[in-house]
Write a sequence for this structure.
């Protein structure tokens, strides 16, 4: 399996622009997570899905952030409009059903908003 | 609320020696899971080892072992025979009790292995 695939790997955008981050989870995984990593706040869980349904979006910082999972093999995290403080590394991770199984992470998207 | 605490922002160790990275956790749940991940400078998150709260034996994976002390709520990672390639950030994480495999991460410890 190719693992969790995120695109793009790097994104530089201007403040006010819309940004869309993409994730393809590992085939067969039931759970998909979006995390954000910054120096100040570490790794924060933004939102996660179970069988394509959002379960908990309490980590989404503002209404400017939205996430969708239209099918089992694709998810997006959108920021509109983007702000400099959104600059971070965004990770997508997937895992099988609840149990002792680890979450597998993608390579991350490094977002810079100027 | 569940919480993971890693009190060592940075550690260093000589190559070939063992090192222990500390992790304490707080939860009122009886069933939970503890994980360690490695993040090298390239940025990816690599799963290292898992310990379930009901596991009686400490988990081991190659040079990694987890020193699980349930009463103390600690889950320290021990790396034996350190290698230069072990230099990275190490994160302790706990699986949420909601059963959805949500991971809560600590702040991380940066390990530097010196030759």
């Amino acid at each position: 399996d190719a693992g969790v695939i995120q695109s793009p790997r790097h994104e530089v955008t201007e403040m006010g622009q819309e940004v869309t981050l993409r994730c393809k989870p590992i085939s067969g995984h039931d759970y998909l997570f979006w995390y954000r990593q910054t120096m100040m706040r570490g790794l924060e869980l933004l939102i996660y899905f179970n069988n394509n349904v959002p379960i908990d979006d309490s980590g989404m910082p503002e209404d400017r952030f939205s996430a969708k999972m239209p099918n089992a093999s694709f998810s997006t995290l959108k920021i509109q409009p983007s702000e400099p403080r959104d600059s971070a590394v965004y990770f997508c991770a997937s895992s099988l059903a609840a149990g002792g199984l680890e979450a597998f992470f993608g390579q991350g998207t490094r977002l810079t908003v100027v | 609320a569940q919480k993971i605490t890693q009190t060592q922002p940075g550690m260093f160790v000589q190559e070939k020696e063992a090192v222990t990275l500390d992790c304490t956790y707080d939860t009122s749940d009886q069933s939970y899971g503890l994980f360690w991940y490695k993040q090298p400078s390239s940025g990816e998150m690599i799963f290292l080892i898992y310990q379930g709260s009901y596991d009686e034996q400490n988990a081991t994976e190659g040079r990694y072992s987890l020193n699980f002390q349930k009463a103390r709520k600690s889950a320290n990672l021990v790396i034996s025979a350190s290698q230069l390639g072990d230099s990275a950030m190490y994160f302790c994480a706990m699986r949420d009790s909601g059963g959805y495999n949500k991971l809560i991460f600590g702040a991380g410890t940066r390990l530097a292995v010196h030759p």
In short: Chain A has no helices and eleven strands.
